[in-house]
Amino acid sequence: MAMLNDSYQLSDLTLKNRIIMAPLTRLRAGDGNAPTPLNAQYYGQRASFGLIISEATPVMPEGHGYPQTPGIYTPKQIAAWKTVTQAVHNKNGRIFCQLWHCGRISHNAYQPNNQTPPAPSPVNPHIKVMHPNDWHEMDSNTPHAMTQDEIHTTIKAFKQAVENAKEAGFDGVEIHGANGYLINQFLIQGVNTRQDQYGGSIENRARFLFEVLDATVPLWPGRVGLRLSPPTDYKEIESNNLDDRAQLFSHVIKKLNDYQLAYLHLVEPRMYEDHDPNTYSLPLSSQDFRPLYNGTLISAGGHTKESAETLINSGQADLIAFGRDAIANPDLPERLAKSAPLNAYNRDTFYGGDATGYTDYPSLK
């Protein structure tokens, strides 16, 4: 029987346990959207996780949509990320960089030359966006439909970001295809109304995702993961009916078997609905997609120790990602192994600020 604290062979990497730190946006980057020594301390504190997945990291200037998010496209950013990866490696940890593009979840204020944000189609998300300088709330813009040249430039940016992540000392990368951001926007009919080869049919809507994978996976075989969120309606992504979503993500996930991925990382529907935390059996959950995918599967979604053990022991998932508990418990693997009490997290300090609620959560020691 597999246990959470058992080691796991992820491609050619041996993970010390099956407990993953989920990608967690914290809005604490420094000047030039570069990581800071505080960020290095934060990640280094969590090196006991089997694998850390970094906060979402834009691959190009146009990819930003939130203040103080670290990029990975300038020499300054790459050099600063080296201090983060060194802090993790100094404690024998492993860390992947999550590669990100916000797409329509951005604003003119983030874009070069104050242009409208790039997206599959000009569909306004009708949300509030934070200004990059003083963080005041703004109404979202209607984005512009990306030209084919912009699509190809963005794919090249993902490709270059893989090379930059290697230079920065990461152990791999995760492509962010979830939670209503650019790749997810291409997948979903409600916000992809294109009439060209990137819109319409399931195959066409999935084209951008697979072109990103075609450009990145060969650069680092076995070290590129992918995060998807089949049930999400985050950021006003209009929900298709369950049948359409099941067909879309079944098509995508089956085709992923053709790629030498590190893993598939799925956000569970229980992130959006209440149900028995020990089952993870809602439609569009890992229960539906586990039979379709031959590789390593990570499950994320409000897990407890009990639900994590249930999914691992049933074979529904190989690795379990923890988010809020990873924020509040830098030594979460030790606490889970000992069934020790967990620190409570403070939502008020999740986004922005200083060390408070970031690096000051106590460890058992």
Write the layout of secondary structure elements.
Layout (H helix, E strand, L loop, with lengths): L7 E3 L2 E3 L3 E3 L15 H9 L5 E8 L16 H15 L5 E6 L17 E2 L8 E3 L6 E3 L4 E2 L2 H20 L4 E5 L5 H6 L14 H4 L1 H10 L7 E5 L13 H15 L6 E5 L18 H4 L7 E4 L4 H10 L4 E4 L1 H5 L3 H7 L27
Parallel strand pairs: 3-4, 3-14, 4-5, 5-10, 6-9, 10-11, 11-12, 12-13, 13-14
Antiparallel strand pairs: 1-2, 7-8
Helix pairs in contact: 1-2, 3-6
Concise structural overview:
With 365 residues, this protein is of the alpha/beta class. Helices cover 29% and strands 15% of the residues.
Q: How would you characterize the overall build of this protein?
A:
The protein has helices at residues 37-45, 75-89, 148-167, 182-187, 202-205, 207-216, 242-256, 286-289, 305-314, 324-328, 332-338, and strands spanning 8-10, 13-15, 19-21, 51-58, 95-100, 118-119, 128-130, 137-139, 144-145, 172-176, 224-228, 263-267, 297-300, 319-322. Helix 1 (37-45) runs parallel beside helix 2 (75-89) and helix 3 (148-167) runs parallel beside helix 6. It has 365 residues and is α/β, with parallel strands linked by helices. It has an eight-stranded parallel barrel with strand order 3-4-5-10-11-12-13-14. A two-stranded antiparallel ribbon has the order 1-2. The chain is built from eleven helices and 14 strands. Helix 7 links the parallel strand 11 and strand 12.
